[in-house]
Amino acid sequence: MSRENSLVTAQWVEDNLDNPDIVLIEVDEDTTAYDKGHIRGAIKLDWTTDLQDQVRRDFVNKQQFEALLSDRGVSNDHTVVLYGGNNNWFAAYAYWYFKLYGHGDVRLLDGGRKKWELDSRELTDEVPTREKTSYSAEEQDLTIRAFRDETVEAIGDKNLVDVRSPDEYAGRLLAPAHLPQEQAQRAGHIPTAANVPWSKAANDDGTFRGDDELREIYTEAGVDWDKDTIAYCRIGERSSHTWFVLKELLGQENVKNYDGSWTEYGSLVGVPVALGDERGDA
Amino acid sequence: MCGATEGGLSLDGIDVAKEAIIQGQVTHEGEPVENAYVRLLDRTGEFTAEVPTSATGHFRFFAGNGDWTLRTLAPKADPVDKAVTAAVGSVAEVTIPI
């Protein structure tokens, strides 16, 4: 993958608003953001209800994903362009999800909703209607998804990249600071994980930094480019953003997102936890 | 919103005793700015969180004890940085004119 076939600019989106081969999809942490205004023609996916199983902690399965996209009028041939708030955290999460289920052409709008708003581009509250399709998903591509046992085994072996803020990594905060801090799990990070906050990869306006700059950031943080990598955060959305950078922009092989992330790891019985700003030992 | 006062964001349902709250309002010439983005930077300048302002220009963070910086971005305006100190059990109210 590369920047050319995984990322589009706000201007490109504006120029393609009436292109029938493209489906714009907004995915936000604040699931009401779309309702207040969105890019013309965009549909909404709700990450809490549309993309997650409503009983177990897991994603919707292949059949549910097929039913969802068929219902929303997305076909296998569409170019899906995702965008959202929070610097595309949840749009990147959805991007990873589309890749997990094998969608052919999916892209992120560089800078997401914030860049679009800061550019003073048009938003509408008109909800489009789309004809239903018959979407067919692939089996989950588990080469891009890490589970807990694999993550524990990766300590001291693979690159573990903790993309949360330094205060969350050190255990001084338990959640991103726009959320209440009282949480059930223990604070800290997975021993040996490098802390490369997702935000290092983005400019203030939410757009991604250039490839050379990105490569330097992860190299300086101690990421060994010859090793496999697992990225994690708190619930797997910010680490999707970093997964996107490493795998899709920089073309690194063998990068997985651990979507269980800290809310799972920090609740596991008996696993090692490191506190403070240092990585900790294997 | 008419009658919105400085620091008018309700704390209903929030356990203030357990949180280090930073909240406030972004204004331009005294009027609330509803489409701004406020980012919370830690003592080293590293990004910690970001929220869009509400229809009344309000924002809120749940930080930790210590010194923080609020960086505000808005269309057609230069970024504005403002220092703030937070402590668990208290609410730091900040007005940010841009």
Summarize the model shown.
Chain A has 282 residues and is an alpha/beta fold. Chain A contains 10 helices and 10 strands.
The SSE string of chain B, one letter per element, is EEEEEEEE
Strand count of chain A = 10
Number of domains of chain B: 1
The dominant shape of chain A is globular
CA distance, first residue to last residue of chain A: 32 Å
Question: Treating each run of at least 4 consecutive H or I residues as one helix, how many helices of chain A?
Answer: 10
CATH superfamily of the largest domain in chain A: Rhodanese-like domain
Description:
The complex is a heterodimer of chains A (282) and B (98). With 282 residues, chain A is an alpha/beta fold. Chain A has ten helices and ten strands. Chain A has a five-stranded parallel β-sheet. Chain B has no helices and eight strands. Chain B has strands at residues 20-28, 31-32, 37-41, 47-52, 58-63, 66-73, 80-86, 91-97. In chain B, strands 1, 2, 5 and 8 form a four-stranded mixed β-sheet that branches. Chain B has a four-stranded antiparallel β-sheet with strand order 4-3-6-7, with no helix packed on it. The interface between A and B is medium-sized, with 27 and 29 residues.
Q: How are the SSEs ordered, and which strands pair?
A:
The complex is a heterodimer of chains A (282) and B (98).
Chain A: E1 7-8, H1 10-15, E2 22-26, H2 33-36, E3 43-44, H3 62-72, E4 79-83, H4 85-100, E5 105-109, H5 112-118, E6 145-146, H6 148-153, E7 159-162, H7 166-170, E8 194-195, H8 211-220, E9 229-232, H9 238-249, E10 255-258, H10 261-265
Parallel strand pairs in A: 1-5, 2-3, 2-4, 4-5, 6-10, 7-8, 7-9, 9-10
Chain B: E1 20-28, E2 31-32, E3 37-41, E4 47-52, E5 58-63, E6 66-73, E7 80-86, E8 91-97
Parallel strand pairs in B: 1-8
Antiparallel strand pairs in B: 1-2, 1-5, 3-4, 3-6, 6-7
